[in-house]
Structure formats: structure tokens, C-alpha cells
Amino acid sequence: MSRHPPGTRLMPEEERQETLRDLREAKQETNKMLEKLPVVAHSAKMERHKHELEEKLARLDRAIETFSKPTVYVAM
Question: Which of 23, 35, 39, 53 is exposed most, by the fewest CB atoms within 10 A?
Fold first, then answer.
């Protein structure tokens, strides 16, 4: 029997796969938004928006890496 960290539960495979699909879709959409931005930001607002999208991509990549593992525990 497998022990898991206190206060967590094993995520069912179907839920893990669905979450992974959602994360990949979000990454694809974020990439599209980033590609639409001009190569050179002409304002501080544009630069900030680009930076926010890049940070979001980094978070999505970390989440995809986590949910790509065969066993995922989530907080209850």
C-alpha cells in the first residue's frame, strides 16, 4: 500500500489526464497571444503584458511537468 503526504489525496488518472489537457490548451493559447505581440514593445504597458505572458508560460510549463508524472498528489 502506498503512503501519501498528509492532507493530500492521489489524483485519479482520468482527472490527471484532463488537467494535463487543460494545461496544454492554456499553454497553446498563451503562446498564440505572445506571438501576436510586436517584437519590440513600444510602451511600458506592452512590455508588462509580454512579461506577464512569459511568466504565465513558465508557470504552465511547471504545472505540465508536474501533471505529466504518473502519480500526482493534490491537497484535500
Answer: 39
* Integer Cα distance of 76 and 68 in angstroms: 20
Q: Using a CB cutoff of 8 Å and minimum separation of 24, what contacts does 29-36 make?
A: 30/56, 30/57, 30/60, 31/57
pLDDT digits (tens, 9 = 90+) for 13-57: 999 999 999 999 999 999 999 999 887 778 888 889 999 999 999
**Nearest by Cα to 16 from 76, 71, 57, 75:** 71
Q: Alpha-carbon distance 68 to 53, whole Å?
A: 22
**Amino acid at position 65, single letter:** E
